[in-house]
Design goal:
- This protein has 153 residues and is of the alpha+beta class.
- The strands form two sheets. Strands 3-4-5-6-7-8-9 form a seven-stranded antiparallel β-sheet, with no helix packed on it. The protein has a two-stranded antiparallel sheet with strand order 1-2.
Amino acid sequence: MVFRILPLLALSLAVSAADLEGVKLDDRVRVDGQEIQLNGIALRTRFAVFKVYVAGLYLTEKTSSGPAAVESGGAKRMALVMLRDVSADQFIESFDVALRNNNSEAQLAEVNAQKDDLFARIRTIGGARTGTQILLDYLPSAGTTLVVDGVDT
């Protein structure tokens, strides 16, 4: 499941507000008919200087535990809002670095096929411009979906 790799990117921050770097995220959204809440919001930077995107993780219940987020039942969402123009390769590289920095080799091995599928889908989409909204939703009824600016991919 592609979504197993995503919660591990945004768990380190607790939510005190749904606004970061001018990006506003709803406190609650509906995914697969289920209301879920913003669990955390984070700024992804590259080389500690370049602001790449704001990410928000939505879960059925708030948690500060990566394993609890991954194993929690129900719908999940990772919302990304781009803060700069990036090519597909730049986005994939950034995402891959974040995954490697936050997961063990064993955890990465478990999701390698799903990661490769996600990266192939990102390459198909191409680059993302500033302001692009990318939604990765886990739907208990259908699996993981990828939506870019309101368009299913």
